[in-house]
């Protein structure tokens, strides 16, 4: 039924779309063939080996190489084609000298290397090759002078009449192979650009000026080596006129670019000098004259005159850029100061173009041309034609003095002199195979030069193993698919790992019944989809984790862990059970059977005081601990343990001197004269302890204690004690007396100093009070003077 078929298709699509947002790119692709797999990414490979477990779909054959090997695929059975580069034409760049007698033809000069390559591209894998460019000395030049002959350029025409011979002479300094041509333009010959009255058509100029009839573009002189011919023809030219200020120069530039035979362009450096003192019309301006047809970009010269100016509109700037680039023409705009800003903006839109300031009468035109040519030729800019969909190109320039450019700057190098060599690293990468055909051709060329590099792109879209595919193979359910690269590519309408199922034949009940374990309710243990009555297990985000089994009831990631590692990192997980590596056991393979980690310094396992379990010592005596049961925190040290016996045996002193024979005969005593004679640890192959102990008289004695062969004990002891010397009484008494005297003198000096300070302070205080004392100078109240003064009342002071 339709519902059943829809359910089958839904389950089939679900299986291939479930992990679109999870896992690696190889897994997400759900590739059904080797060709589909290798187009996913560079890291993807296809396994042709029979390694799939029950429940895994054939898309599991497509995965990263490491994951395929981990899953059990033989490395020799992995299809992983790689891209390559082959150079088909590699003519070296020309080392040409201008003063050499032998002259080369333009097609014999090579400035770019290599000239042709073939690239085999695999999706996601970039291929990089090096391109060299070298400016050849004495390279031929074609220069076409295109001049505005409107009335305002009258005085300029006089100076251009001798341009041919003068420019020839100057250009001899640059090249010995130079050709020059001349063309002129005015405007479209329709209203409102010119006056169409009969009189104005004959002479568009006012007053008594004798002007020629207006025209759009005229090819006056084809490119020639004869400078005199240039002067002769240009001197015969007459000024014309038009009504509006902008000129029809774009029509003329288009014809100069596309009429190669009429102009005489060679495959050399092509220069177009555009001389004017006005602006320009461009696409759309033709509507003013009723001209609506877009410019067709074709040559329409008859008798060296442009005949379709009244029929086609002006070209657009983009159209001009395309045609100038296609024909390798470099443009020099020689314009007056007034229109410099306009043409500088135009220069930014036209690659490999320059703008020079033309004097009011064109007297500086030769210098302008020379300077502009040097500016243009000192820069190389690479461009490529349209690349196929999914293909990208990146440029990296290695220019003069090691200057490196990337991004857009990676396309160009500046300040290149004649004879300089620069290089470019060009990287081409494809993200997918083209829909039409398996081969595409692109070209890369330096702007303004006639040479280019042809690159043939061959896309790796299928694996080598697919060539040996077996159509209608019996392996694929009696011919329902093609067996290739270890898997079946099913015919239309067939699904399943072996194309064993048709969407028109299988019923829903069959699907569910065959995919339930033990007649349970879960389909494929909830870890897969039932496709064609068979469980096809889901894929995990981690490509190393997978479900397997007839009912997807097994996996390789749900085993016991140790130290946060599956199976302790010492085994593999199969159907949720750890299969341990050699020398490991336990449910998580965390128990090592290796006893080397339990060996003590005496080469005994756990120092003879425990057992080795899973590579770790379990001490049987609880008072011992440590990695090999060598530490006993509560046990006395070796030196303290044997001190009393060594003391009684060597010096007949100590607490055990009365029981020495009974308690201290368990070791062999050897006396030495000094400490240097004691055995050293580095000299022994058995444990050795150095001891330093003190007796009741504060005397030190030194000895070593060692155990040989677990039974033989040896004690080396220095036979003389180191006792501290007794105190010297006289120095001590003299020192005490001297100390007392010194202390007394110091105290006296301090007392004397304090008294002096006190006396001085008291005297200073007395002096201060003396200075501050004031005596009362008032009169005695009972005192009467003995002198009496009498005043004569009649005295008037005379």
TrEMBL record:
Residue ranges annotated for the PSI domain, each copy included: 25-74
Any one GO molecular function term: laminin binding
Transmembrane regions listed in the UniProt entry: 729-751
SMART domains: INB, Integrin_b_cyt, Integrin_B_tail, PSI
Signal peptide annotation: 1-23
Cystine residue pairs: 26-463, 34-44, 37-73, 47-62, 205-211, 259-299, 433-691, 461-465, 476-488, 485-524, 490-499, 501-515, 530-535, 532-567, 537-552, 554-559, 573-578, 575-606, 580-589, 591-598, 612-617, 614-660, 619-629, 632-635, 639-648, 645-723, 664-699
Location of the Integrin beta subunit VWA domain: 33-463
Any one GO BP annotation for this protein: cell migration
Cross-referenced Pfam families: EGF_2, EGF_integrin, I-EGF_1, Integrin_b_cyt, Integrin_B_tail, Integrin_beta
Family matches, as Gene3D superfamilies: 4.10.1240.30, Cytochrome c1, transmembrane anchor, C-terminal, Laminin, ligand-binding face of the semaphorins, domain 2, ntegrin, alpha v. Chain A, domain 3, von Willebrand factor, type A domain
Keyword terms: Calcium, Cell adhesion, Cell junction, Cell membrane, Cell projection, Disulfide bond, EGF-like domain, Glycoprotein, Integrin, Magnesium, Membrane, Metal-binding, Myogenesis, Phosphoprotein, Receptor, Repeat, Signal, Transmembrane, Transmembrane helix
Residues of the Integrin beta subunit cytoplasmic domain: 752-798
Domain (Integrin beta subunit tail) ranges: 639-728
GO cellular component: cell surface; focal adhesion; integrin complex; lamellipodium; melanosome; ruffle membrane; synapse
Entries under PANTHER family matching the protein: INTEGRIN BETA, INTEGRIN BETA SUBUNIT
Recorded family membership: Belongs to the integrin beta chain family.
Protein name from the UniProt record: Integrin beta
